[in-house]
Amino acid sequence: MRINLKNIGHVTAITLMISGLLITGIAAFTAWSLAQHPSGLLDIMLMVIAALIAIGVGLFTLVIFSAWVFGTLVQLYGFKAVFIAIGAAAALFYIVRQVNFSNINRDPISIGTSDGIVYKEPSFAESIDTIFSPNSSVLLISKTNSISNGYPWFMVAYNESSKGYMWGGNLCAQDIWVNGLSGRCPSHQQKTILTSFDWNKIDTSTKHIDVIDVIQKMLPGSWYNPSFSYTFNQQGEILDEDKVIGRWTVEIDEGSKQQVWLTLKGNDQNSWISKKQRIRGLNSLWLNLNDEAYSRIEESKWGFTIAERIQIEGEIFKSKDRARKEIEKKFSADMKHPQFYNHLNILEKKYAKELSIKYGIPTATLDSIEWNWR
């Protein structure tokens, strides 16, 4: 039986669309369910088949719907009128899209100032337009590409018609968060300050700015995972030692789930770090991104910085490797010799003592750095 899409009946079209929607929904749910915990190759094959069915039937249903709507409109108003209406709608959509994607906010956002200096251009070297008293409010118009000391510059409006540029490090968020500001204005801090974030405990009643505020405060620092480590600073920069390799921002999806995302954007030389990861949890000790956990690296521990602890750990491994090579040479690499490990232990302790004297710390601290330098 062949279906003429140009002259499809209302009952037939509605029947096909309802059937298509049901099949698409069932297939999509099946594919999603199998994707959660695939137990083998068969589950993966079934998941792919279900996904293909959902896509194929969904596209077919869309074609049926489009043909039915188009045919009905042509019968009622004629082809020429429908064609003109579609063209006008497409042109309107293009215009709206261009406006929405411009760098100007549709509604200026009220933000606070900690330092009220407004410049003529986005640079400290430019002349000053005006100076407000601290804790004033201005309207944020747009974000520029200029960055100074880790913070971007913004175009702001004040005194109804005046415009100028202010540095993000001197601006703070009031009721709406904007990435690139120094933080939240003290006058708009919530009464009960959050000390952790758990995605299971936020809902539509939770203000976006409250969630972002706690993440902005707690995320800066160094985070360790066996596969990768991150260092974030308060200015929204990603660091590799003292070198800036990218920027980080926090965003929240609209809707009932309000998923929170950490977006990493590497610079030209480090584009490989660019990714978007879901933040599932954050507290003073742990950061959960997607399904991976990161532990916070203490900036100072046992009187040493992170870089110094890594250096000491490297020297410990070198000294142990040196001791093993010397003992292997002494016993002709005969690890079964009854005195092999006894001599190895004595030589390792000797080198550990030398390191403890070098750094002025007990050998017990060396053991702690070796096994838990973070």
Quickly name the level 1 CATH class of the largest domain. Mainly Beta
Biggest sheet features: 9 strands, antiparallel
- Percent range for β-strand residues: 25-35%
Number of domains: 4
What would you call the structural class? alpha+beta
What is the CATH topology classification name of the largest domain? Answer: Lipocalin
How many extended strands? 18
Query: Can you name the CATH architecture of the largest domain?
Result: Beta Barrel
Unreliable spans = 100-105
Describe the structure.
The chain has four domains: 5-100, no CATH class; 109-187, Roll (SH3 type barrels), CATH 2.30.30.40; 197-297, Lipocalin (Beta Barrel); 301-372, no CATH class. It is 41% helix and 26% strand. The protein has helices at 10-36, 41-77, 79-100, 208-218, 306-330, 340-359, 363-372; strands at residues 109-113, 116-119, 128-132, 137-148, 151-158, 162-167, 171-173, 197-198, 221-225, 228-232, 237-240, 243-252, 260-266, 275-282, 286-289, 292-297, 300-301, 304-305. Strands 8, 9, 10, 11, 12, 13, 14, 15 and 16 form a nine-stranded antiparallel beta sheet that branches. It has a five-stranded antiparallel beta sheet with strand order 6-5-4-1-7, with no helix packed on it. Strands 2-3 form a two-stranded antiparallel sheet. A hairpin with an 8-residue loop joins strand 2 and strand 3 (128-132). The longest helix is centred in the first third of the chain and has 37 residues, at 41-77. The N and C termini lie far apart (70 Å). The relative contact order is 0.05. Residues 100-105 have low confidence and may be disordered.
